[in-house]
Amino acid sequence: MTPEQWSSTSTARVAQTMRAARKAAGLTMSAVADGCADRGLPEITDQTIKNLESGRRSTITLTDFTVLADVLGVPPVFLLFPLGAAETVEVLPGRVVSAWDAVAWFTGETPTADPSPPGSAREVLDTFRAHADLVAAARASATLATERRRTASTTPAPDRKATLLELAAGYEEYSETDRKELASFRTRMRERGLVPPALPDDLSAVDHAEDDSHEAKD
After folding, report:
1. What is the number of other CB atoms lying within 10 angstroms of the CB of residue 140?
2. What angle do CA 107, 113, 115 make, to 5 degrees?
3. How far, in Å, CA of 44 to CA of 34, rounded?
4. Of 104, 133, 156, 203, which is least packed with CB atoms within 10 Å of its CB?
């Protein structure tokens, strides 16, 4: 496929995926156009969408693409590479890979036998993904502890109550460990010059605990 053919084919693929997402969301072209206008792009009219979906328009700008994905309620990468709807996709002229490999390449998750070079773009992405995993773990252990204590408070059977309280105590230990690990990871991110994502409200004390720890050492 020539570069010119690849360009038009890629746009057509996005347009067809966009159409499928629009249908799945139960949105008319006018409704999508209204959504684009609400987001500051009134130039995307229902005629624009009709031209894209019919193939009469063979290009799409990055801003249009991003806003349309938001209006349709799908991740932008899903419009670009229709995971689950196609086995392979031509990510670049002459480069055909599986749909999943295309998504992984786009998001920096391409499998490799070697670790990401320190300081590389992919290594930074890996760092933020690891941070997200730590946040999820800290929230999960805290939630499990809370649920077990709540259930124990309404359980009349003494044996069952004791078991639940024991489980809750165990999860609370996990939660404390998870929070310390998260705090330490965020400190290492800052030492590298990276700005960690804002923590959810239920973990906001993590940063304060780390600050207190540093003050105690000083």
Report:
1. 14
2. 70
3. 9
4. 156
pTM, entire model: 0.68
Beta bridge partners of 96: 90
What is the residue whose two structure tokens read 């419009």?
A: 79
Token digits for 58? Answer: 């063979």
For 91-117, the pLDDT digits (tens) are 999 899 888 888 888 888 766 667 778
Relative to beta strand 95-98, strand 88-92 is antiparallel
Same domain? For 129 and 34 the reply is no
Q: Which domain holds residue 212?
A: 121-217
The domain spanning residue 87 has which CATH number? 1.10.260.40
Same domain, 207 and 157: yes
Q: Are 189 and 124 in contact (CB under 8 A)?
A: no
Strands, E assignment, 15-116:
88-92, 95-98
Distance of CA 120 to the CA centre of its chain: 20
Instruction: Please choose, from the candidates 87, 64, 72, 47, the residue with its C-alpha nearest in 3D space to the C-alpha of residue 11.
Output: 64
- Using the 3D structure, point to which of 106, 136, 153 is the last residue of a domain: 106
Across the chain, where does the E strand assignment appear? 88-92, 95-98
Contact 158, 178 (CB under 8 A): no
Question: Could you tell me the sign of the dihedral formed by the alpha carbons of 137, 143, 149, 152, in that order?
Answer: negative
Return the residue matching tokens 């709807």: 85
**Does the structure show a pLDDT above 80 at 211?**
no
Residue 35's CB: how many other CB atoms inside 10 A? 18
Q: What is the pLDDT of residues 157-210, one digit of tens each?
A: 999 999 999 999 999 999 999 999 999 999 999 999 999 999 999 998 998 765
